[in-house]
Amino acid sequence: MRGSGFLWGVSTSAYQIEGAVDADGRGRTIWDEFTRNPGAVANGDNGDIACDHYHRWPEDIDLMTKLGVGAYRFSLAWARLLPGGIGQPNEKGIAFYDRLIDGLLERGIDPWICLYHWDLPQALQDRGGWVNRDIAGWYADYAALVAARFGDRARAFATFNEPGVFTLSGYGGGIHAPGIKDSNAMMAAIHNVARAHHAALPVLRATGVPVGVIGAFWPMRGERPDDAGGAMMMDMLFNWACPDAMVTGAYPPTLPMLMGDVIEEADLSAETAGADFIGINHYAPMYIRTNEAGGQELGAPPADVPLSGMGWQIDPPAFTAMLETVAERYPGVPLYVTENGIGLDEPDGDLNDTTRVAYLRDYLGALAEARKRGVDVRGYFAWSLLDNFEWAEGHAKRFGLVRVSPDDLTRRPKQSFHAYRDAIAAGVPSRSTPIGEI
Ligand code: BGC
Q1: Rama region for 29: left / alpha / beta (φ>0; ψ in -120 to 50; rest)
Q2: Tens digits of per-residue pLDDT, 356-397?
Q3: CA neighbor of 163 nearest in space, from 204, 139, 191
Q4: 13 Cβ below 6 A of ligand 1
Q5: d(Cα 76, Cα 222) in Å, to the nearest integer?
Q6: What is the pLDDT of residue 347?
Q7: Which of 13, 43, 151, 267 would you call most buried, defined as having the most Cβ atoms within 10 angstroms of its Cβ?
Q8: Which residue's CA is the nearest one to ligand 1's atom 12?
Q9: What number of helices (H) and strands (E) belong to the chain?
Q10: How many beta carbons lie within 10 A of that of residue 325, not counting itself?
């Protein structure tokens, strides 16, 4: 984290870009297994090759240099470092991240390292994964390895990417790995992720590197007026459960009652909680509907609003409001936008992504508005550098500033790449930050 200057970056994650799933002793992950389930992922896609960033990372650093970013946020594949999740480290996997980190530093780009972006080693899932209370210790041991090997060069650590998404979608809704649909398992996963943050925090902080929490923050709205209660429930579970427990040591007030006996005495406390920054991943408002069984499910946005290719509402003022909400909830903790971007159905070869250019311009304007209102947002990381493997959507939806050809993996900057480069060159976002020609 650099002084008081505004930090510009791009974000990616391991399973979404690395490919090379069998290279150099990497262990299997829950996403390697989940993508094998028929119907789990659009078009039967998987991340076996993805962007082949594992081999093409020098080219990807060249792209970052051309953009002019000051930081690159990426995640470590736990199973590359510890193929069995625990036990013997894999030196070849460690060497890959050494090369990447050194390559970034040579170009003056700060490595922002996230320890967990959803790709749990399958060996740990075989022992219950996030539902097993032992995982807090397994995770702290993994964090100790990361601290020992990369703590000398990381500029920021984040313990988890969006716990609200992988616990709810992976253990509650079953639409992400490991594909479990069980609300008790989901509650246990939420709690064990929070415990893992508490267990790893001192280990990571001992390196002197700032340690943050990254959440997905989506304003929750009822699809119909009587869905307001459901939207509040989702707001609590998805947006606040893990960040509150990680940053303050306490869940939102009504949640412990719903979690039942997964919470044991002295599991979490204000003393062991904390975050040196909050990473905000924001895309859109989410519409919630209550189903016949009384549960919550994804609803549809109103008919007349502009939508991305993901069907998500484009609503820049909601971004300003969410930044203010997070700042009020965690006073005094600096904020960084660690993901923001737009998924589109882009015809092959079309680099003229005017919708993304407009989205970036309007969302950077919304960020500038939040700063004007006094929100302490110190940086912005665009999602994503490359078209990549978009989880259950496979390779069909594209979020990249750079087109990655599905045939030969060639990288070609889109118009949004040039627009973002110009915004970075223009400096701290203001509502008049130029961002290309539309
Ligand atoms: C995740 C990314 C994902 C993006 C777009 C975020 O929830 O962190 O991995 O690609 O949203 O869906």
Answers
A1: beta
A2: 999 999 999 999 999 999 999 999 999 999 999 999 999 999
A3: 191
A4: yes
A5: 36
A6: 81
A7: 13
A8: 390
A9: 15, 13
A10: 17
Cβ–ligand 1 distance for 32 under 6 Å, the answer no
Look up 339 and say whether it is catalytic: yes
| Residue 265 CA, ligand 1 centroid: distance in Å | 34
Residue 19 Cα, ligand 1 centroid: separation in angstroms?
17
Q: Side chain identity at 263, as an amino acid letter?
A: I
- Give the pLDDT of residue 349: 79
Q: What is the spatial distance between Cα 222 and Cα 231, in angstroms, rounded to a whole number?
A: 5
Check: CB of residue 210 under 8 Å from CB of residue 336. Answer: no
Per the listing, tokens 């199973």 go with 79
Residue nearest to atom 5 of ligand 1 (CA): 390
Given the CA of residue 393, which atom of ligand 1 is nearest to it?
12
Which one of 59, 223, 324, 339 is the catalytic residue? 339
Q: What is the pTM of this model?
A: 0.97
Angle between helices 415-426 and 53-67 (to 10 degrees): 50
Q: Which of 112, 383, 386, 399 to mutate to test the pocket of ligand 1 (most atoms within 8 A of CB)?
A: 383
The per-residue pLDDT for 359 is 97
Confidence (pLDDT) at 259: 95
Written as six digits, the tokens of 208 are: 């002197």
Q: Which amino acid is at 181?
A: K
SS (H, E, C) 70-98: CEEEEECCHHHHCCCCCCCCCHHHHHHHH
- Which residues of the chain are under the pLDDT cut of 50? 1-4, 434-438
Three-state DSSP at 324 gives helix
In the set 18, 162, 223, 390, the catalytic residue is 162
Residue 38, amino acid: P
Q: Which amino acid is at 163?
A: P
* Torsions phi, psi for 20 (to 5 deg): 45, 50
Residue 20 is encoded by which pair of tokens? 């090379």
- What residues contact residue 395 under an 8 Å CB cut-off, 6+ apart? 43, 45, 387, 388, 389, 406
